[in-house]
Amino acid sequence: MTTDASVTVARRPGEQALAALGLGAPALDPADASAHSFPGGGKWRTEIPSCEGPEALAVVLKESSRLDVPIHRISQGSGVWMLSDAEITEMVEATNERDIELCLFTGPRGTWDIGGSVRSDSRGAGLRARGHDAVAGCVEDAVRATELGVKCLLVADEGVLWTLHRARQAGIIPADTTLKVSALVGPVNPASYSVFEHLGADSINVPSDLTLDHLTEIRRVSGAPMDMYIEAPDDLGGYIRMYEVAELIRRGAPIYLKFGLSKAPGIYPWGTHLRDVTLDTARERVRRGRLALDLLARHGADGDMAPLGSRLPGVLNRFPTEGSA
Description:
Helix 4 crosses helix 5, helix 6 (190-199) crosses helix 7 (212-219) and helix 7 runs parallel beside helix 8 (245-252). Strand 7 (226-231), helix 8 (245-252) and strand 8 form a beta-alpha-beta unit. The chain has 9 helices and 8 strands. The chain is of the alpha/beta class and 325 residues long. The chain is globular.
């Protein structure tokens, strides 16, 4: 933190009032802070999720301008296969114009497959790609999307992640394609987080119920960018952690602040039959982002945002692939 008197010193929520009442909290431990940041500077970036098509994207872009919400990444959850070439191209052009990274979900997933295990009490296999054909579908989506200019792909299967990492190393998809791990398979401990990094992940969505101590544990073994819902959809727990944003950044940097929405209907797989709710929730996600950013500003903790337009993760640790040194 700079000592320039013109700069607001970050404070914790309610800090002065509670201290005056003799209820002050212990000082923050510097050892808990993440030592990592994004390449090019900055501790945090922003993401608007569940932007399911060109019309929803237009709403997000318009609302972000109106509310002055900076956006680094916009992601979609229904999948590449739920969009036409023309729709993908329109989204690519619109995000390129604003220098925002567009991330589309790849291929089939277990929750939509004919297998019954995901509908059992144990929810076995989850979103993972069942069988060779599901992996092939994900790869097909990845090739098609990147040929249309998409630069970020969302994956929910370790095998698909490793396959797409090998594909970019082999030049099958562009080398600067970034691979983002879905919250629905996100790791919950330092060892598994490190494994996802080594498999090729450039951005790893952890579940929103991880504690602050869990984030510190992860940051002691990996500097791979983390994604976290500041407000999680109900199917991911519905957690709302706005008052923790500053501490999530301090512990979890480099981190994408994802502005999700609780108490909202599910919209995957999206179609025009869900148009109204899709547009309404897209608009509200941006507003939620404004609320979180306002909290950061009020607490003097809104510095260290990564430059707009930045998207690459920096140098990360990878397992060796065939033919690598």
